[in-house]
């Protein structure tokens, strides 16, 4: 068991691929077919292309505030890939790679950041909660799903995400405590991208690792190289399998880096050095994984260029469709909070409707 081999209290990190795309220890490589490896890489590449284009759309005034993902694709895709269609994804707001792998249409991703509530109205077969902006609040929701899963005697697993800053929130501790006490099938993934907006990881906690916070709740915890998709996949597979067997929750800390700003309203040059960013660019998860696939003989630079160009066209066409979708109905702003609008939401809707109508007149 990987969780037994890598002790977060000793700052032991699971790493399988080095920065040149070479295998460090063959015994640690997870069993993944070549087709699945390509699928993982393509999802990471689509996430990167979408992210680059989305940042440009926002800077052009064509989209609302956006939270970039560049540099965190391996953490996102590698952690959700071992799950099954019946499993739940509970995101924060910076998990585009996980959303796309789970099956959320790109059009809906753009609709969300465009300010259209249809962006949170996922297809019936995509078991994912809406984006949660209040920090760490989604973790208790994830545990609630796990409790319901146990009560119903099902074997679904919930994969939930939080940032390094979110581990300082009370909801983080509450969620881990409830998950441990009720033995819920929950996998907690900490996307440790080194900064909670402008506050660095070292200012969040005196703990040597974030994974070691699992010790207090008597649940397994493991720290992995979040830019190494094989390491993230291997740890997540083990955690998901444990949860499905009824062995309870696991905490995974994926050590990665946010190459871009926290959001498009943030200026990261104020609180971090360019030298640090350049050092992490050398650890780019896409470059590392691409080298591995090429060395394995199942990918090439030519295929990569063709796929990148194909995705650029796809992303641009999808966003144009969103831009031409027209205005949303006022009711759409209110109707997706619950299965049916509650009395207070109906009241708010009627009040706002009156306000808008008066403004039109």
Can you tell me about this structure?
With 361 residues, the chain is an alpha/beta fold. It has helices spanning 2-5, 34-59, 73-80, 96-102, 106-114, 137-152, 170-181, 229-244, 274-281, 285-296, 301-323, 343-360, and strands at residues 13-14, 88-90, 158-163, 186-192, 195-196, 199-200, 221-225, 250-255. The strands form 2 sheets. A 6-stranded parallel sheet has the order 1-7-8-4-3-2, with helices on both faces. Strands 5-6 form a two-stranded antiparallel ribbon. α3 runs parallel beside α4. The longest helix has 26 residues, at 34-59. The radius of gyration is 21 Å and the shape is globular.
Brief synopsis:
With 361 residues, the protein is of the alpha/beta class. The protein has helices at 2-5, 34-59, 73-80, 96-102, 106-114, 137-152, 170-181, 229-244, 274-281, 285-296, 301-323, 343-360, and strands at 13-14, 88-90, 158-163, 186-192, 195-196, 199-200, 221-225, 250-255. It starts with a helix and ends with a helix.
